[in-house]
Fold this protein.
Amino acid sequence: MALLQVKGLTKKFGGLTAVDSLSFEAREGETLCIIGPNGAGKTTVFNLITGFDRPTRGEIDFEGRSLVGRKPHEIALAGIGRTFQIVRPLRGLTVFENILVGAFARTDDRGEAGRVAESTLAFTGLAHLRDARAVSLPIAMRKRLELARSLATRPKLVLLDEVMAGLNPTEGKEAIDLIKKLGSERGVTAVAGVEHVMHVVMSVSDRVIVLNHGRKIAEGKPGEVASDRDVITAYLGE
Amino acid sequence: MKKALKISLPLLAVFLLAAPFVLQARYAQHVLILILLYVALGSAWNILGGFAGQLSLGHAAFFGVGAYSSAIIASKSTLSPWLGLVVGPVVVLPVALVVGWACFRLRGPYFTLATIAIGEMARLVALNWRDVTGGAVGIVIRPSVFSGTDKVPYYYIILAIAAVTVTLCYRISRGKLGYFLMAVREDEATAESIGIDTSGYKLRALAISAGITALAGAFYANYFLFVDPAIVLPLALSVEIVLMSIIGGLGTVSGPVLGAVLLKLSSEIFRNYFKDASLLIYGTLLIIVIIFIPGGLTGGLKKLPGLRPVRRLRAALARR
C-alpha cells in the first residue's frame, strides 16, 4: 500500500520550474531513493512534502490524507520526519538534548521522552557523544544527529535529504548501514535523496526514481535504472 | 552540585524568611524588596528572551499595564488597588496576544525593534489618555490593607511572587515547554520539522512572561503608591530588565536571580557612595562583565574563564 502518494506535483519559482508534474509513491516499509544531479529538484520535493514550501500545483497524500496547505509541524506530527541537506542542529544543546526535543513531540512526560531519546541515541550509534554540544560535532555525526532527532519523533516516513554529501567512504558505509536498519529494525519507510553515488543507491534502495530538471526520467529497480539510456545521458551528457 | 543545592536551598529559604527581622533598617528592607521585584521581572523576561530567544525590549509596556491597572482601580473606584494583582495579568493577556501577532512575524533584531516601538506606544498612550491615566501628572494611590509605611508585609508579598516565578522557571526549564522554547531559539525550521508549533510556543512564552511582568507592575504600584509614564513605562526599565538576564546568564534559571541581586545591590551602593558618578561606574562595570564574561555570571562560574577573556580581548584587538 502506498504510504505517500504524490500526483502531478509542480513548483515554479518565478520563471524556473523546479519540479515539473512529478508523480510517485512510497510504499510502506520500503527504501526509495530519489537520485538526480545537483539542481534536479530533490530538495524542493522534500520541502513541498514537509510543508516548508507550497506547491504551485499537484497533490500530496499521506495515509490517504492531503498534506497540501498544512504547516510543517502538523506534517511532522502526522508522521513524516525529515533531515536537512545543510544540517541544522540545535547548536547550543547537547546531542542528547537535541534528540530529547524530538522525543517530546509525542509525549509530555520527561521520563518517557528520556527513554525514547536514550534508545534512539543507541540505535543511531551516538551514545558516546551523548553530552557533547551539537555545534562541536564533525559533519558525519551532525548528519547522524539530524536523523536521530527526526527518529525520536517516531515517524512512519523519513525524508533524508542528501544522505551521502560530505561523507568519506567509511562514513558513507556507516550511513548506509543505518538507513538499512531503519526499515529492517524500525519498520520506517525512507525516502532518501542522493546526488550520484551509484553503489550506494544499489545497496540501499528497493526502488529508485531519477529526477532531472524537476522531471522524473526513470523509475524502477536499481539495476534497471542504472542501465537506462536517459539516466546515463542525464549524468554523462549526450 | 545537587547535594550543595539540597543544603543551600533551605538555608536560603530561612534567610529570606527571617531577613526583615534581621535587617530592621527600613532602607535595607527597601533594597531587599527592590531586589526581589527585579528577580521576578528578570526571570519573567528570561522565559521569553532567554529560553525562547525572543529579545524583547518592550517589557515596560506589560509592567505599565499591571501598574496602571492597580492605579486606575484605586482612582476610579472604591475597590482595593491590590485587585490589580489579578486584573493586571488578565488585562495584559490580550495586549500580549496583539504584540505577539504584530511582532513574531519579525525575526532577530527586527523583532527587538518592534518591541521597542510597542513599549513607546504604551508610554504615549499613558501620557495622552489623561481621563484615565492622569497623563504626565500620574496617579497617587491611597494605601490599602497595609499602612504603606511598614515594609514587612510588602517584603513577604514580593518574596512570594519572586519565589513562585523562579520555581515556575525551574519547572519550565526541566520540562517539555523549556526544551521546545530552546529549540525555537536555536533553529525555527528544525523546531517545525520535529513537530513544534513555533508560533504557538512563542505566544505561550510571551503570555507567561507578560503575565508575571504585569503582576510585578501591580505590586509596584501598591508599594510605591504612585505611577506616572516616566516611572513605570520608560525604555530604561525595559533595558534594565534585560540586563538582569544578560549579566546573570541568558536562558538559565539562576542567571536573572544573580543578575538582579548584583545589579540592584551595586546600583544602590554606588548611588550612596559616589553620588552623581555612580552611573558612570555602573556602566563601566556592565561593559567589563559583557566583554569578559559573555555567557553571564552563571556561564562564567561554571567553567572559570581563566585565560579565555585575555585571549578574547587580544583577538578583538587584533581584528582592529
Remarks:
- The CA atoms of residues 68 and 227 of chain B lie 7 Å apart.
